[in-house]
Amino acid sequence: MKLFCNLLEGMEVHLLEATDIVADTQIALEKKLAEFGPFEGILNFNCILRTQQLHRMNQLDAYADLFKSYPSAGFSTYGEEYIGHINQTATMLVFKSDAEWMPPEPASENRLPNPLITLARDYRSARLQKIDELTHQLQEKDLQLQETTAALRQFNIILEEEMHERSKREEEIRHLSYHDTLTGLFNRRYYEEAMRRLDAPKFLPVSIVIADVNGLKFLNDTYGHEMGDLLIQKTAESLQRVCRETDIIARWGGDEFAILLPHTDTDNTLKIINRIQEHNQAVTIQGLPISVSFGVATRTHPDQDLAAVMKQAEDLMYENKRKESHGRSNHPG
After folding, report:
1. Against a cut of 0.85, is the pTM above it?
2. Residue 1, in any domain of the structure
3. Which residues span the domain enclosing 233?
């Protein structure tokens, strides 16, 4: 249902029952003919909406036949629109004759058409043809709009996929820039940035652990670099398994690891190292358990330089490594 009028909020609306335009017009003409007598002519202003309705219902010829017996001219017009209703009617001007009234003669097939009727029909036909052309153009534009919308939708899908792939690549690049490819641990770059972040009194005490894997060169020379890489990976897994989520573990060099432990004193750090050593004894490569040398240093006061604390842990690691190496060389096994 379409309403061609302006409706204000709260307005009461009455819908009239639809009737037959051709029958209603014939009744109206017959009443006026009986009241006024013969017509000299009829000027018909028909609402464009009524004309379109007649066209849709294939009643244009039947409507035109009502005026065959009278000189007439007609136009399809746009009705005047008011608040609450629209003038969707046919307004006719009937020209009365003073001659004695006679019933209209029946239409004859051989009768020449009235020029005004012909003119009105030609005008109506041209208007309807124009309406059909405009409707066809609108349909074509609607089809073009649908095709454009579909193309834009496909473009958006491709764009979203591209943005997702780009975001994924950027995430991979960020990950690689801060992680070691062999172990998945943080790399040296990230560890140095973490040291700068933890260089504040609120993180005290901060302990630093330097760990160096023993026997890497032996495995590389004897069994190949694949075994050496496996040793590095197993050591990294051991550090991750024992250390806490707040601890920062990084691969510092080829066979060296560095661990930052905020809010951790020396005693608690040594307990963590002991658990790592116990775990390493249960993991073997080529029949040999993992062996790692550790050095520990703790910053307890804000005046201490964190880089100097790390150097102290590194020196202790090398000292412990020499002692362990000397002990192994003197061992009868």
Report:
1. no
2. no
3. 188-328
